[in-house]
Each structure stands twice: as C-alpha cells, then as structure tokens.
Amino acid sequence: MVLEATVRAATRSGRLACSAAKGCAVWRIRVHGRGGQGVVTTAELLSIAAFRDGHEVQAFPSFGSERMGAPVTAYCRISDAPIRTREPVTTTDVLLISDSTLLRQDDIFPGLTADGYVLVNSSRPWGALGLEDRLGGHRADRLRTVPATLIARNATGRPVPNAPMIGAFAALTGAVSLLAVEAALRERFAAEVAERNVRAARTAYEFLRGEIPAHA
Amino acid sequence: MRRQLEGSRAIAETVACCRPGVIPAYPITPQTHIVEALGTMVRKGQLAPCRFLTVESEFAAMSAAIGASLTGSRAYTATSSQGLLYMTEAVFNAAGLGAPIVMTVANRAIGAPINIWNDQSDSMALRDSGWIQLHAPDNQAAADLHVLAFRLAEELSVPVMVCVDGFVLTHAFEPIDVPEQEIVDAVLPPYRPRQVLDPDDPVTIGAMVGPEAFTEVRYLADRRLRSAPPAFERIAAEFAEAVGAPQRRARCVQDYRATGADTVVVALGSVTGTLRDVVDSIDGVGVLTITMYRPFPAEEIRAVLVGARRIVVLERALAPGASGIVTSDVRSALAGLDVPVQTVIAGLGGRPIGAASLRELLARPGLEDVTFLDLREDVIDRELGRETVREPIAERDGEAAVESAGERAGA
Amino acid sequence: MPAQSVKFYQVGSRAVGNRLLDAELRTEQSSAERRNSITSGHRACQGCGEALGARYVLDTAERVTGGRLVTVNATGCLEVFSTPYPESAWQVPWLHSLFANTASVASGVAAALEAQGRTDVRVLAQGGDGGTVDIGFACLSGMFERGDDVLFVCYDNEAYMNTGVQRSGATPAYARTATTEAVGPIPGSRPGQGKDLPRIAMAHEIPYVATATVAELRDLEAKVERAMSMRGPRYLHVLVPCPLGWGSAPAETVHLARLAQRSGLFPVFEAEHGEVTSVLPIRDRIPVEEYLRPQRRYAHLFADPPRTDLIERIQQIADRNVARYHLDPHEIPHEEGA
Question: Among candidates B69, B66, B70, which has minimal Cα distance to B197?
C-alpha cells in the first residue's frame, strides 16, 4: 500500500502525456485479439494504470458472446476530463493488436488517425508484416512489433500477451507510466502471478525502448 | 475513494455494503458478474450471515427473494432479458405482496431473434409490474442508486428495480466511488419488515381477495407507489449529503440544459452521457434524463418541458405496432400543451448510439414522428422487395407447393 | 387467537384416534390441546381429503416443533378455501405467493431464518399434486438438490380439482377428468408411468421421503414427526381423496384412501437417502376393482360391457407396486447374495 500511495502521489498531478506528444485531449485506444488472449483484461489493466496516473479512464469490451479463438475487441479512452460518451471507439489513436493473424481483417485499421500508433504482437520486425499497402504513409516510428507472447511465456509460463502489450504500450506512447502499469498488475493479480506479469511488462517496455535487442 | 472498477463490480460492492440477508441468483448475461462477485464475498465470509442461493431459474430466484423478504431478511437478486421475463409472474407477485426486494436489471434485448446485447425491452415490458423502476445514467449512479433503492423499498414496502444498461455500463471500467460502509449504514437502517412470517405472531400473508375489495387493494398500492418521487428526492439528498458529493445527488429527472431549451431530448440510461456530449455543441438543445421511470414523474417532467418547442424522446425499446413506450408517457405528461413529441428508436439489440448520428439527427429539419436511428435502409429495401415477389403460402397447393418446396430444398 | 377447543365423538374407526388408549399412545388428533392449525369455518367441500390431511400434518408438525413453525402454501384448493379475504382459517404463520414457486419461496424462507440465526423455526411447504408434480416441479427439484431445510408436503388428489378436475401428471391411468373424458377406445387418462414423485424425490437422495394416506392417521403423524426430527429437504406425499373430482361420497373419503393402500395402487413407505427403509404391509389385500368401483371417475370401466381389460391393466400396476415395495407380508424374503 505504501508503494501504491507513492505512485499515486507522484503521478496524480501529471497532465496527460498525449497533450504534449500529439496535442490531443483524449487517447482513444482499440485492442484487437482473440478470445483467450486477455483482450478485455488488457483494456482493463490499461484503464487501471491510466487511472493510477491520475487520468479519467473508461474501458469496455465489444460485448460479444465470443468463444476461445474468436476475434475480440476492447476499447479504452484516457482523458483529463470526465468521459461521458458510451459509444465504441471508432476514430483511434492507438491500435493494440494481440494476434497478428487479425491483420488481414478489414475492420482493424479503419479509423486510425494519420499519426496514430500501431503495436502488433509479433516476433517479426514490422517490415516483415506486409502492411506497406495499408499503412505505407504512416510515421514509421509509431508502427512497432513486440514479441509479447514470447515474453509472456518466458516470464509467466503462459502465452497470454496482455502484460507485455501494456508494457510496450507505455514505452511506445508514454500515455501511461511503467510504474502505473506495474501497480495495475499488482492490483489486478495475486502476489506471485502479479510479479511474473510485472517482469513481463518491464521486459516488453525495455524491448520497445531499444534497451534490449530485438529477438532476444 | 474513487477506484477504477467494472460497473458490475461497483454494483456488487455497493449491494454488499447494504448488508443483504439472502441473495438468490441465477446466471444470465450480462448480469452475471454482479452475482458472481457477491457469491464470492459470501463464500469468503465477508457478508456473514448472508445466504447465497444458487437457484435453478430466475423464477425461483424471485420466489426465494419473496420468501426471504417476508421472513424479515433483506433480499437482493439480479437478472436480464429472458430471465426477467421468465420470473415475470413472481415479479408482479413481489409487488402485490409488498416485499421490498431490490433487483438489478442489466438491460438486454429480448428474443427472438436471440440477442445478448443491450436495449431496454426487458424492463420496459415489466414497467407496470408495480415495482419502482430506477434507470442509471452512469456507473456512479448505478452504484449509488442501489443504496437509495433499498432505503426507498423498505420505507414504502415496495420492490425496486435498478435498471443498468447491460454491457454498456455493467462491463465498463471507470472511476467509481463505492459508498463506504459507514455512509451506507447511516443512510440505510436495518430492515424492519411490515409483515413477517413469525411463529410468535402468526399472520396470513397472500390471502385471496375477491371483487369486494380487489379494487381498493389496487388503489392503495397505486397511491403508495405514487408517493415514491418525493421520498426518493429526500433520500437522495440525504445520501448526497452523507457522501459529501452534491453532484451525486440523484433526482427523479435530471435536467441538463433542458429548462428553457428549444429542443429537449428525453432519454433513460447510459445514452445520457453521449447525449450530453452532443448537445454541448448545439445551441438550444438540452437533455432530460429520466431516472425514476415508475412511478412516472409526470409533474417533474412537465415542469422542465413546458417551455420547449420540440421534444425528442430517445427510446431504447420498441413497442411493436405502437412505436415509442416512453413517448406515450411523455405525451400524457404534456397534455394540453401544443408541442410536437417525436420518437427516435435507437440502440436496439446493442447497436451503438454514436454521437455523429445523434448530431445529424438533431440537425435534420423535418424529423418524422418516428425515426429509427441508423436504420440500414438497404437491408430493409432488399427484404421488402423480396417479400413483394413471394407467393402467399395460403395460395399454394398440390403440385405447385411440392415443386416450390423442392426448389427451396435444392437451393 | 387461541386454539379453538375441539369436540370429539367416537366414529368407530381409526380416523380420529382411540381415546381409550394410554395418553402417550394417542394420536395428536385425539388431543383436545392440539393446535387446530387450520380451524373450522373454512370453505372446503364436505369430505375434503386435503383439509383433513393438512390438519393432520400441521397439527403434528406444530406439536413436534413446539409451535416453532412457518408454512408456505401453493395456489390451489387448500389456499382458496382457507383464506377468503378478510378471513383466514390458519392458526399458523402462513404465506401464499404463487402456484409454481412454493418450494422456492420456502427455500428463501429457510435461508432467511438461517441468516437470522433462527434455526429453531422450521419451514413446511405444502401444495396439491398439480403444484408439486407439474408446475412446481422445477422449483421442488431445486430445493431438493440444494439441500434446503424444508419439509415439502404434497396433498395428492390426483388431478387439478381447484380448476374443475383436469388431468395432472399424478392422474392415474383411465381416470376420467375434464381433460381426459371417458370416451374413445382408451377412455380417461392415458396409461403410462405418470410422474411418480416419491421415487423422483428419492433419486435426489434427500434425507427423507415418505408416502401416507389420510386413512392411516397414526402412520401419517409418525411420518411427520420423523420428518421434523431431521434437517435438510424432506418430502411427504399424502393421498387425499377428493369427493368432487373422484365422484365419491363425502363420507367415503377415509375409506377410499384405505382401499387405495390395501389394493396396492398407493404404496405406503418411507425412504432415507434414496433407500426404502420401511413399508406399510398390506395384510388384507383387495382386488383393485373394490377400490375403483365406488368412484364415478372410473364408472366407464364398469359400464356394459365392462372394460375388464383395462381393470386388469390397473391390477397389474398394483401388483407391480406390491412386488417393488415388498408390500405382501407373506412374501418369502429374497436371500441377498445367496
């Protein structure tokens, strides 16, 4: 609790990172994945982390009766003002794609803003994904891959990529702090599971920051 | 303290603070997270001596709640959609017996066609069951309303339904302040039933009533239900004072830039938030949110709408063959006023209600009496076109029918 | 209101209990101090077996619980004739909610008492055969499988009498009802298993299941006492003849109940945790014809020409019961494992 209180105190007054980074008042995030990959939990954890950073946050799933393996979408909005709208995120600042087999689906990229971020869970570099035809004109520094499943399996023993995806999101966008991500994982999971996920999130964070080499 | 919580979790924690005695529960999407959380709390002994019953149907859930309530325990359950309809007989019965049960309805469409997503057809179908109906505009209200619901139910000895848009609110994570135990305890005294099964004072509850007194029984029940609005306002004010948050004071109807507006959009539930965002950028348009839908607060609504030049009622349910359900209530509240009341049917079966569509709709010069928001005209036209070329089945006979069946089978 | 004092006259049968016996051997019904749970002045028909059964059951339950009893009642004759507003025949706490939900309401009552720590107060739910085997079946099964602490009593008069004698899942083969008229090649209720609720209750392996009739007062009282000595879900199925529905003389109610038992058509037994533990043997067995003939609901079997084939089918049902429950006291016991 002491640690958590410190985190809150240190970040409570912080303005939303996107204000400086991209001049918007709200981060609009979509998470795409498949049933069983913790897509809804990704959005939930993201919302807890951003809340711990002192922001107003809303997260919700696309409300399907999806089974294991079926495409699932979840949404997250981060803002400095109370969020009132309830509509799904269409215009999107960040796409988190937990399963690269979804990249060929028609409904993934529409709505992505011109300078939006895309983070794909893949062991391959971005150039190998074959997305030039769809995102050719995009800012290259905002399109990244992270081997989230691999990192998760190494750190937690389970191929659930949500913690690394959030760690990588923090590194890529700066919309939430790594400290808040770690606190969110500790809030959501029991002690030992939480620590393993914290390790996974940190590894992905460092990977995105280039502090560890690709394909490590 | 505000925490980032799922709506269902906040509702469960708030209900827990209300110290329920018996919770019978039956699973149905999207209500399940609420009773799952409560069941776990009971298992862990956090709600002792509360009993959690895993019953075999919603009908049994409401029935067990009736039994518990009339034995002097605070009873709570939650349901949705088909589940609400499945317990319908017991829902009416609970009201007739004056059992102050509180039930969350996570609003969901009714099949067929089966659909698990949000609209308000379920609670609308039971609007005249004799329950007080409260509709939550957001998740903070969804949590708070449960405290008010128990207090109101027990003061009036009338059951209360707290309607929360399924998925849109129940599955959304947002910052919510679950009222603290001491605050709930201050607002909600221990349950003191008006009538109770007790060997020390044997009474007969649920006797048969014939034509000589049935009208009077109903009259008195109606009268008691109609006393709910002022009681709700008083309790809500007391609660807001206790939590020290005037902005959380619930009202039967919430006026957002509506008084004096040219156009007022009337709505229930979670679409309120999107609507407020929308009207912020349109001059002369306000929003009136109905929180207490039954009893219908006609006077309060008329007071806000009396100056408007146009009323648009946004309905998240459809009365087939009659269009708008809330529209009829609003029209009767405005009897004698010459103001058009237009119906917009929106958000059926989980169709998102988007700000862009609402903005376009409100800007439309000649809005029809009934409009279906974002209706896919291409689908309608195609299907209607198909129907006109189809032979009526009644005219088919003999070989023609066999041939036609064969064609279908081969198609 | 204090219990009304009760007057007796000797009826020459075992129905009211023999007051010549030692006090401790007398039935509850022979006691002037009995609770009289459902008091006189109610509006049941003359010779109503259900009114009789309910009084026997509740007076005994009241005694053995020391008056710490609450009751839940299904919609049906018992509810209608006992509570014409603003009057009530009930001397016990009594709750009526709906037709189908009696067992669930009782589960809620039991849960509330447990939550309040008032486990000294016991719960008894009661209904007719329609409210038990048909429309209330799901709720009852749920109450059983959850292990809720309720005694559920079914007063079985073998049809929907309250609505004018329509067939229920407990209506026996070939009995005439308003929805199974005595016409056509197979007159009356279609033959088949029907719903044997005592056996279905046993399949839930609940602590106690018993059957009884209003003819064997001592047996019925003993079973209520046994049931109330246990916790958890218990089920008591009482055969209660209905003069209106059966087309029998009001004075014949008790007699007919005894004939049902003596013919083997209504086996009287007890079971604990799914196993039969005792039966009421038939010492003076009668052919089913003796039981059927006095009832107008079977009159078509005895027309000209009589349907001896159908009577024989009914006899086979009785024979099967006798064999299944070992009701014949002269039966040579089967050697286990021999």
Answer: B70
Chain B closest-CA separation from residue A22 CA (Å): 22
Instruction: Report d(CA B68, CA C107) in Å as an integer.
Output: 8
Q: Which residues contact C187 (CB under 8 A, 6 or more apart)?
A: C174, C176, C181, C300, C301, C307, C310
Q: Which of B49, B97, B198 sits opposite C115 (nearest CB)?
A: B49
| A85: nearest CB among B6, B165, B277 | B277
The beta-carbon neighbor of B172 closest among A52, A58, A90 is A58
- Per domain, the residue ranges of chain A are 2-208
CA distance B354 to A56: 20
Closest residue of B to A88, CA-based? B352
What per-residue confidence (pLDDT) applies to C5? 57
* pLDDT by 10s per residue, chain A, length 216: 333 333 333 343 345 544 344 445 799 999 999 988 899 999 999 999 999 999 999 999 986 666 788 899 999 999 999 999 999 999 999 999 999 999 988 889 999 999 999 999 999 999 999 998 888 888 889 999 999 999 999 999 999 999 999 999 999 999 999 999 999 999 999 999 999 999 999 999 999 998 665 444
pTM of the entire predicted model: 0.92
Q: What is the CA radius of gyration of chain A?
A: 16
Q: For residue B246, count CB atoms less than 10 angstroms from its CB and return exposed for 0-12, middle for 13-18, buried for 19 or more.
A: exposed
Secondary structure tally for chain A: helices H, strands E: 8, 6
SS3 call for B256: strand
Could you give the number of structural domains in chain C? 1
CATH of span B253-372: 3.40.50.920
Q: What is the CATH number of the domain that holds C196?
A: 3.40.50.970
Find the mean pLDDT for residues B124-135: 98
Q: Where are the domains of chain B?
A: 2-242, 253-372, 382-410
Asked if B84 and B71 touch (Cβ cutoff 8 Å), the reply is no
The reply to whether residue B4 touches residue A90, judged by beta carbons under 8 angstroms, is: no
Task: Tell me the ipTM for this assembly.
Answer: 0.92
Q: Chain A contact for B353, CB < 8 A?
A: yes
| C31 domain residue, yes or no | no
* Residue C338 located in a structural domain: no
User: Which has the minimum average pLDDT: B217-226, B263-272, B381-390?
Assistant: B381-390
**Does residue C78 sit within a domain?**
yes
Share above pLDDT 70 across residues of chain C, in percent, rounded to a whole number? 92
> Do B173 and A47 make contact, defined as CB atoms within 8 angstroms?
yes
Q: A-contacting residues of B 164-203, CB under 8 Å?
A: 165, 167-169, 171-175
DSSP E strand stretches across chain C: 69-73, 94-96, 122-128, 151-156, 208-213, 234-239, 269-272, 275-279
Annotation: CATH topology of A2-208? Pyruvate-ferredoxin Oxidoreductase; domain 3 (3.40.920)
The rounded Cα B122 to chain-centroid distance in angstroms is 8
Largest CA distance in chain B: 78
For C115, the closest of B51, B54, B64 (CB atoms) is B51
Touching, C vs A (3+ Cβ pairs under 8 A) = no
User: Same topology for domains B2-242 and B253-372, yes or no?
Assistant: yes
Full residue range of the structural domain in which residue C299 is found: 43-325
Q: If you classify domain B2-242 with CATH, what class do you get? A: alpha beta
